[in-house]
Design brief:
Number of domains: 2
Helix content: 25-40%
Largest sheet: 4 strands, antiparallel
Strand content: 25-35%
Shape: globular
Strand order of the largest sheet: 1-2-3-4
CATH class of the largest domain: Alpha Beta
Mean pLDDT: 85
Number of strands: 8
């Protein structure tokens, strides 16, 4: 009976993990490059879509503006909201996973309001016994090297009952 070459298997797994991490980093680097190439007041809707592709969602903004949602969850630590005016010209690009935005999440707020504020979450879980639903977003706190999780719990009516910040449990498993 021949033994499998475990060294080779571990080497392949290591290469796969390295490639996946590099791809996540590459997406982040591409985002930064694409944002740098967009100029508020000059760039157009077509420029935004050329750089970022189709948005995950489109929200109605003030005065006929549209807000394009570009999320980088579940592995990323950012979500972007890109505002394009009614005239089709870029107004602003915002990274919305910030502690300032998290502070705006208040009890009683509807799930759709939270989605519009923070973008698509990285994880959604529903707990049948207590009727709660939980959503999590991975983010990078200012001045810290490890990502954290912002979590929101909703009641049966999908209204916020609590929120908080905690260490990323996926990092704890390493």
């Amino acid at each position: 009976m021949t033994r499998p070459d475990t060294t080779s298997a571990w080497w392949r797994l290591g290469r796969l993990i390295t490639a996946a991490l590099a791809a996540v980093g590459f997406v982040g680097a591409c985002d930064l490059q694409n944002i740098a190439e967009l100029e508020p007041g000059v760039s157009t809707d077509a420029d935004v879509r050329e750089k970022f592709g189709p948005p995950e969602a489109v929200w109605e903004g003030a005065d006929g503006a549209q807000i394009y949602e570009y999320n980088r969850q579940p592995e990323g630590v950012v979500n972007y909201m890109i505002t394009v005016g009614a005239d089709g010209v870029l107004v602003k690009v915002s990274q919305v996973l910030t502690e300032e935005n998290f502070a705006q999440v208040q009890p009683g707020m509807a799930m759709e309001q939270v989605r519009r504020l923070l973008g698509k979450p990285r994880r959604v879980q529903t707990f049948a016994l207590n009727g709660e639903t939980s959503q999590d977003w991975r983010f990078q706190p200012k001045g810290q090297t490890e990502p954290m999780i912002f979590s929101v719990a909703y009641d049966r009516d999908l209204r916020v009952i609590r929120s908080g910040i905690m260490p990323d449990p996926d990092l704890q498993r390493r």
